[in-house]
Each structure stands twice: as structure tokens, then as C-alpha cells.
Amino acid sequence: MSPFPGEFSEDDGLTRSEVKAKKHRRMMRKRRTTTIVVICVLIFGFGGFFGIKAAGGVFNELFGPKGDYEGQGTNEVSVEIPPGSSARSVANQLVEEGVIMNSEPFLDEIENREVTIQAGTVTMREKMSSKAAVEALVNPIAPPKITVAEGKQVEEIKTIMIESGMKDEEVDKAIDDKTPKDYGLDIDAPSLEGYLYPATYDLEKSKTAENVVQEMVDKTSAELDEAGVEGKDANRILTLASLVEKESPGDEEVRKKVARVFLNRISDHSQTGGLLQSDATVAYIHGARSDLTTTKKERESDSPYNTYKKKGLPPGPINAPSSGAVDAALNPSKGDWQFFVATNPDTGETKFAETYDEHQKNVEIYRKWLKEHSEDNGEG
Questions:
Q1: Residues 6+ apart with CB under 8 A from 249
Q2: Which whole number is the average pLDDT over 10-29?
Q3: For 141, which of 104, 120, 267, 345 is 20 to 30 Å away at the CA?
Q4: Nearest to 259 by CA among 352, 197, 348
Q5: Would strands 339-344 and 349-353 be described as parallel, antiparallel, or unpaired?
Q6: Is the pLDDT of residue 319 over 80?
Q7: 326-338 pLDDT, tens per residue?
Q8: Domains of the chain, start order
């Protein structure tokens, strides 16, 4: 029972024998500390004593603050727990590194929860309560993460990194005017566009923007190796895959047909004069609208990415393609199609044609869909 009405003791809920045992353990700890103090004073004198106390945390135990922080703490810190560390040595280490206020509440929490502390690097926070600190040892604090979605462009990836807390100038320095070769990937490409692999990445406190970009490029390299893509073919495959990523839905068969259409358009049997005529590449130059449509003026651009004027594939990828899009680029369907149109953007239904006349009939289906949905939305 608490000695005062309305107040609660930390021993509430314990049996008399448990309370007695807990007091005994505390008394023994105090006796051991007193013994250490006496021995240190007798052997080393006060000068050496204070040096030993500072190194081992004894000074903090005897003369430091006796309270406890509240809450989950503030700034993250990385704590390296050496192999064979005792609970007390870890407690003293956490006090010295500003994680907990003093060791006793922490040791009580360790004892009450019967926690075994594992060696290794653990993420903690400054000024944590003892309870929160022990919880961080039992259930480690996961580092923050960023996720780069499939089809994202470099500028969008930079925004994701900056919003995660990285400094603008560091992100710019890590990405702007850089190519895969700057990160050890021996591929000729105009920029890092398409080489920052879409995935989820940990953002440990020690990581710089350059470290994260290196991981993205390394992941791209690993995926290319796994797919059997050689360096001399990588930029071409990723470029085609980025077009497939942008121009078609996630359906595997549709993507493989779209890849075939693009390859047929730049083949010796092209019906488009060797031009891809991809609105996605024009949108890459000027900024994309939701339906990827472009204007006549935009299609007159002299940019090397304007596939209405420049034959063949553009100089490099226009986004970070998914593994599915890369697979489509590597394994396109067999067929003579040269045209395609998504006749139902809601469902992703796409029609393919071998001739321009057939394609125009499919375009009329798409225009009918647009008209019906414009009327549904109350638009003219």
C-alpha cells in the first residue's frame, strides 16, 4: 500500500516477499558501490579515484542526478554495445552518452523485465526514460526510410530525399550533373535518370545523400546483372523500359506488346519513318499532364528527347523503370503492331494495330470514351 492516500508506490502489486527481495537487491548494490569507493580511495587516492569513477560511471552513480527522463527521447544516437557487456556497464555507457539520466532506474527496468542485452549497434535517443531505453533494446528503433516508387523521375526522387530531412544542397550535389560512372557503374548515360532504382531505403543517421544515391545505383547494377543485361546494352534496355513504364499499365502482356510496338517503329519496317512518336518523351521535356497528351508546339521541340523529330530511342531513360518494364524490354511479344492506344484508361484496356487505318478506328473508340466521361463529369 502507498503510505499516503491517492498516491501509488512502485511496489504496489508486489507481494511482501517480492518487496523484501527487491529492497535486498538494492541494498546489495549500494554496498558493492560503497566497497568500490573505499577500495579506490585507499589504493589510488582521491586524484586517481576521480579518474576511475569517470571512466567506469561510478561517479555518476554516486553523485549524479537520481531522477529519470520522461518520454521517448529527442535526437537519435547510435550506440555500440561491446560483446560481453554487463547490464551495469551498458547502463553507465548510456548515462555517459546522454541517453538516460542515471543507471539505477534502467537497471531496475532490466531486472523487472528480465532482459538480456545483446551486443551490437543499436539506435536510441538522447534523454530517454529508462523504460523507453529498455524498450529500444528489446524492440529496436527502426531507422527512417524513403520509398522511391516505380516510374519516378530524378526530380521527384530529389524531392522525396529532401522531404525526408536531407539538405537541398547535399541532394543537388549528389545527383545534379552526375552519371552512373560517377558511382562506379561503367555505363554511358547522360545522367542518373533511370539509374536510381525504385525501392525502399533505410536512412540511418550516418548516411549522407551521396550514400543513399550510391545504394540506388548499386541496386540498379545488381538488378541488371540478375537480368543478364551487359553494360553495353544497359542504357538502351533501361531507356526502352522507361517508355514502357510510362506508356502502359502494369499488365505484363500489354507491356510486352508496347515494347514490341516501339521496336517495330524504329526497325527497317517502320511505318513512322523510324520515329517512336512517344508523347511520354515529349512530356519528359515539358512536364507531363495526367493523360500524357502533348501540344503541336511541344512536339516541335529540338530536344533530343523529342521522339516526334528525333529517330530511334532518346539518349537515356525518362524515369526509373520497374523490373516488370525491364522484363518487357528484354522479352517483347512477337508481332507486327506499330500502333497502340489505351481505349479505356480506367481499366487499362489497350488496342494494338498493324496499320494506321486500323489504329484510327481504335482512336475513335478512345475518343468515344473521352466524350462519355466528359459528359459524366459535366464537362463540355
A1: 255, 342, 348, 350
A2: 57
A3: 104
A4: 352
A5: antiparallel
A6: yes
A7: 999 999 999 999 9
A8: 13-64 (no CATH), 67-142 (3.30.1490.480), 145-227 (no CATH), 250-376 (no CATH)
